[in-house]
UniProtKB/TrEMBL annotation:
It comes from the Bacteria. Residues 109-119, 130-146 have a biased composition (Basic residues). Residues 108-146 are annotated as: Disordered. Transmembrane segments: none annotated. It holds the Pfam family TfoX_N. Residues 13-105 form the TfoX N-terminal domain. Residues 120-129 have a biased composition (Low complexity). This is TfoX family protein. InterPro entries: TfoX-like (IPR047525), TfoX_N (IPR007076).
Amino acid sequence: MPRSDSFMEYTVELLKPLGPVQARSMFGGWGLYYGGRMFGLIIQGQLYLKTDDVTRPDFEAEGCRPFIYQSRGREQPMSYWTPPADAEDDGRRLLPWARRAVDAANRAAMKKAAKKAPAAKKAPAAKKAPAAKKKPAAKKKPVRRS
């Protein structure tokens, strides 16, 4: 049976106007998904939303903080940031920030897909006509010498 978390359930309820949000347990927290793409993270009772180069300045301007974890004795920031303080408990104010996060997740997926696609497809080579089949050589009748 999947584990439950009241903060996760509350957050998913706040995000209901966004559309069908799914929460999946991961790494001691929760991943929040919309349209199959992860746009949010809940860890240690804190919501973080996906950012990218387009949306990060908005989060920074509102005094939001990035999710940072420790790895090999170093701090590793991630592309997930807290929403503004006045939006954390207000679904109406949280919705535009969640939409930014969904947009950032979609852009990241498109960027990833573009990297997987070949850089430039070559034009297909002109198809050659199949070689004509040669007729089998006619059998020669043995010549009798008398």
